[in-house]
Amino acid sequence: MTPTTLLWLVTGCLMLQPLSTDLYLSSLPSLASDFAVTPAAVQQTLSLFVFGFGSAQLISGPLSDRYGRRPVLIGGLSVYLLSGVACALASSLDWLVAARFVQAIGCCTAVVVARAIIRDAYSPAEGARVLAKASSMLSLAPILGPILGGYLQVAFGWRAAFVTLAIAGTMVWIAAWRSMKESNTKPNPDAMRLDNLFSTYLGVIRTPAFWAYALPGAISYAAIFVFISGTPFVLIRVLGVPTQYYGYLFAFGVCGYLGGTLICRRLLGKIGIDRVLALGTTIGLVGGLGFLGLVLADVRHWALVVAAQFVVMMAHGLNFPCTQSGSLAPFHQQAGAAAGLFGCITMFAALLAGTWVGASHDGTLLPLATISATVCVILFASARLLARHGKSA
Predict the structure, then answer these.
(1) Which residues, 6+ apart, have CB-to-CB distance to 14 below 8 Å?
(2) Domain of 226?
(3) Rounded to 5°, angle at Cα 352 from 348 and 355
(4) Are the CB atoms for 181 and 69 separated by under 8 Å?
(5) pTM summary value
(6) Torsion of the alpha carbons at 102, 317, 329 and 60, rounded to the nearest 10
(7) Which of 373, 325, 375 is nearest to 353 (CA)?
(8) Local confidence band at 393 (pLDDT 50, 70, 90 cut-offs)
(9) What mean pLDDT value characterizes the chain?
């Protein structure tokens, strides 16, 4: 594959994740009304997606190490598009939650393989730049997705969002089938043996340089997932924002992520991965604590929520390309397994954050602000405490 073809394919695979979580966000309140359930119950469609996404990566990564990136990617995309149809046909919340879990398996396979392809093709520093470039491009998904989702909800109802996801999965499937060349030139025939699988993951877990990037990366994703899972109910139900306008507000917040990735691309060559990560976690800390401070000062306005989301997502745009590339740097033959473990840890951190947000919803801004500040403090501390291991990678 040419660098341009590889970039577009990786971007398409990575884009499925934010589309899968963001496109139907404006439909969450309507889902609660249609199925006559609580907001916490509806958030299972997010939390079970995250759980499936995190769990399946432990298998998807080694599968691509064993059988190659291409066949595993094609299979994962097939699962994704078929489960999207099943979501659109769901007649109950349980059916929808189950279909979302299966959809997560296909989605995570695409993301894990995309990360492993980058490790196959580039050095860690160059890989971080490619991931930052892909992140800039895929930020269109969380920017435009909620806007489109809001109009789809108003015009056709929540099922239209899942039809759209199935179409997106089909487009990426076609691109992978036609354009992708195998990048895993030395498949590991023992990658799926249980004893080898255990020893591979144990080796990754025992590598301090992995945790120096994987843990901050996971917590950084949890920081933005606080807003992904919490803003639909806070903006639409608490602050009275019309459903069709929610997507615009969420999209403005995501513009912070786009800005962060652009800044990341410019700074990586000048100051390196570790200093960019230090900058990103500092910005996140300012955003989280500032949000909580203003809420405690009794500021109640949608602009505060959007501004806090903008700052925290900007920080994530700086953090995530660095942590994705840095966590895989010590590995080559086990890049798929390392990418899978990184993704698993990331998704479980998001699952904890989303569950916390859903359980604490009380009709005010305070729970969202408190959780955001707490996660950002933990992110800042983790990056500082583990920084010495990253510099030795």
Answers:
(1) 110, 111, 114, 134, 135, 138
(2) 3-183+194-391
(3) 130
(4) no
(5) 0.76
(6) 0
(7) 375
(8) very low
(9) 86
